[in-house]
């Protein structure tokens, strides 16, 4: 098998637009990914097992709270640096990639809306890897439509009582705490969406339990499962933000999460191209399919670079607190995941049956890229959000 490391790559980010700090984060991510044996990456996928040890190691390298200030244990980096890390982790199929992305996504609302006590309790342990976080939004009857949430919260003395089920929760089976959206039972609220409220729910709270664990086509090895609330007792001090702020808490965090997915998907696309290029590199040039496949790879490289540029633009907008960041995040997520799906599909076609072998990672990228088009807001919903924003402005 020809190594892809010997092939020239645009994605090594020789761009003069990256700062020295951003380059250092990229190099650290490359070293971390390269140190994980291929056998470990394959095993995590095949056995559908979450590698808590790798997650903690990633946090020790500073990846667990990379884009947050050092005040509560963050690494003081920017969001573009975190995207560079996620692209590299996606390219190499690092087993903790998606859990790390969700972990950072969950810290965002605590930084933005949390009390000082909440920040001290949850952020420092999150940055070190002592705590793993998960995001509890999706329900059996409510995916991209947050207004359809059925999980309820009721004030009962010194606690809120939560009832309902969240599903397809990344890291759900391994997390220590969860950012959960529930509909506060408040008959005085005029609009139902204004009752959606955010809570920090710990794994050990009475009435909380892990439900069904999922053995899925893609995104394996991330402890994806249901979480169930049966009169789950959440202390008053674990209210995140104020009553009715749930949509604000969720949507503000998910915008950043979509850029993270765009970064991961750009890495998937690049990983598929690397594998296909290495396969062609091993063939004689007079092979019947060689020249057609070379042109195919050239087209995929152009598309992947366009996704990378859009992802960088969205990350840069987040770092600048640009109001267009939310729309750019949706654009980047669509572009990158669609291209990742195409790159994986065409790479398998170029490689033939060799592309189905686990050690090339392309078949895993194919499976994961399909999931990328769906989670954290389907690409269809993202297109609607973009169009709604543009028509509203016009």
| Biggest β-sheet description | 8 strands, mixed
Number of helices, counting only DSSP H or I runs of 4 residues or more: 11
What is the H level of CATH, i.e. the homologous superfamily of the largest domain?
Butyryl-CoA Dehydrogenase, subunit A, domain 3
What is the name of the CATH topology of the largest domain? Answer: Butyryl-CoA Dehydrogenase, subunit A, domain 3
In round numbers, the mean pLDDT is 91
- Rough outline: globular
Summarize the helices and strands and which ones pair or pack.
Blueprint: H1 20-34, H2 38-47, H3 52-60, H4 79-91, H5 97-113, H6 116-128, E1 133-136, E2 152-156, E3 159-169, E4 177-184, E5 196-202, E6 208-213, E7 225-235, E8 239-240, H7 246-281, H8 290-319, H9 325-351, H10 362-372, H11 379-393
Parallel strand pairs: 1-4, 2-4
Antiparallel strand pairs: 2-3, 3-7, 4-5, 5-8, 6-7
Keywords:
Butyryl-Coa Dehydrogenase, subunit A, domain 1; 8-stranded mixed sheet; single chain; globular; 11 helices; Butyryl-CoA Dehydrogenase, subunit A, domain 3; 394 residues; Butyryl-CoA Dehydrogenase, subunit A, domain 2; alpha+beta; disordered N terminus; 3 domains
Word description of this protein:
This protein has three domains: 15-131, Orthogonal Bundle (Butyryl-Coa Dehydrogenase, subunit A, domain 1), CATH 1.10.540.10; 134-244, Beta Barrel (Butyryl-CoA Dehydrogenase, subunit A, domain 2), CATH 2.40.110.10; 248-393, Butyryl-CoA Dehydrogenase, subunit A, domain 3 (Up-down Bundle). The relative contact order is 0.12. Helices cover 50% and strands 14% of the residues. The protein contains eleven helices and eight strands. Mean pLDDT is 91; it is low at 1-8. Strands 1, 2, 3, 4, 5, 6, 7 and 8 form an eight-stranded mixed beta sheet that branches. With 394 residues, it is α+β, with helices and mostly antiparallel strands.
């Amino acid at each position: 098998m020809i190594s892809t490391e010997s092939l020239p790559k645009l994605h090594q980010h020789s761009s003069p637009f990256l700062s020295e700090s951003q380059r250092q984060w990229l190099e650290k991510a490359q070293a971390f990914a390269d140190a994980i044996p291929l056998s470990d990456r394959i095993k995590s996928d095949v056995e559908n097992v979450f590698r808590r040890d790798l997650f903690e190691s990633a946090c020790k390298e500073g990846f667990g709270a990379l884009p947050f200030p050092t005040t509560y244990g963050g690494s003081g980096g920017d969001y573009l640096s975190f995207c560079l890390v996620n692209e590299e982790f996606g390219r190499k199929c690092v087993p903790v990639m998606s859990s790390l992305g969700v972990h950072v996504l969950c810290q965002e609302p605590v930084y933005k809306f949390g009390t000082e006590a909440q920040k001290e309790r949850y952020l420092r342990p999150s940055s070190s890897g002592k705590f793993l976080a998960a995001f509890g939004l999706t329900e059996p009857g409510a995916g991209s439509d947050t207004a359809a949430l059925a999980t309820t919260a009721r004030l009962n003395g010194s606690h809120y009582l939560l009832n309902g089920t969240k599903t397809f929760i990344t890291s759900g089976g391994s997390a220590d705490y969860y950012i959960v959206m529930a509909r506060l039972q408040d008959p005085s609220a005029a609009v139902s969406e204004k009752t959606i409220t955010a809570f920090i729910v710990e794994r050990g709270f009475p009435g909380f339990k892990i439900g069904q664990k999922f053995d899925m086509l893609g995104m394996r090895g991330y402890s994806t499962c249901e979480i169930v609330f049966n009169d789950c007792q959440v202390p008053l001090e674990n209210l995140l933000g104020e009553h009715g702020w749930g949509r604000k808490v969720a949507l503000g965090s998910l915008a950043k999460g979509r850029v993270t997915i765009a970064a991961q998907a750009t890495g998937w696309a690049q990983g598929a191209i690397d594998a296909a290029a290495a396969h062609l590199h091993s063939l004689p040039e007079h092979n019947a399919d060689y020249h057609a496949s070379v042109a195919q790879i050239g087209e995929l490289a152009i598309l992947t670079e366009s996704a990378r540029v859009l992802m960088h633009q969205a990350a840069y907008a987040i770092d600048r607190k640009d109001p267009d960041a939310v729309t750019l995040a949706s654009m980047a997520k669509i572009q990158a995941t669609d291209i990742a799906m195409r790159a994986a599909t065409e790479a398998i076609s170029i490689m033939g049956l060799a592309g189905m072998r686990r050690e090339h990672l392309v078949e895993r990228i194919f499976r994961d890229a399909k999931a990328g088009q769906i989670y954290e807001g389907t690409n269809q919903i993202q297109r609607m959000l973009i169009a709604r924003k543009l028509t509203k402005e016009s």
